[in-house]
Amino acid sequence: MNQAMDSGFKARRDLRILVAVAVLAMVLASFAFIPAWEGVDGAGDSSSQTTFTSFSGDVEITYRITGSDTVAVYGDEENRAVDSSAKYVEIPATVTYKGKVYTVTAIDPHAFDSCKVAEVLIPDTVSAIGNDAFAYCFYLSAIEIPDSIVRIEDRTFLDCSLESFTVPDGV
Questions:
Q1: What is the tens place of the pLDDT at every residue in 45-87?
Q2: Which of 46, 123, 135, 143 is geometrically suited to a Cys-Cys bond with 93, CB 3.0 to 4.6 A?
Q3: Cα–Cα distance between 95 and 56 in angstroms, integer?
Q4: CA pair distance 73, 46, nearest whole angstrom
Q5: How far apart (Å, rounded) are the C-alpha atoms in residues 96 and 102?
Q6: Which pTM value belongs to this model?
Q7: pLDDT tens digits, residue range 11-25?
Q8: Are 169 and 147 in contact (CB under 8 A)?
Q9: What percent of the chain is helix, strand and coil (3-state, nearest 5)?
């Protein structure tokens, strides 16, 4: 009888181990589908988030709300953050929308893609720049990358005419 109890105990233990491994495998598999841009403060899916525009000097910049008090400079494959003819863009550290102040923490993928911008100033509140953010900006010759940047995605400066720029140590 003792042997029967031992085999029953072992079978239940083996079943619990099998279930635990299966659950762990499902959890780990779910991480494989999170894009690299997710998890960056101010970055992620823009399809269901509020966008608005605000002026910085003469340039109207589009933003999207990413958190309770954060925004990203908004762009996607069809929309740009600024009018394509803007030459100089200074991204502010904060913007106000409907009376609330938001901190600018990211630059979305494609935000300035194919724009005629020649110079961009990025505040030290920004920590991430998305893929293709400045791709095909043929006139872009100067950009200041602050030390706050911890992530620069693929092809961010594809086919730009940058003369020089410094990559922060944390990237």
A1: 544 578 898 888 888 889 999 999 999 999 887 777 787 778 8
A2: 123
A3: 9
A4: 11
A5: 6
A6: 0.71
A7: 666 656 655 555 444
A8: yes
A9: 20, 25, 60
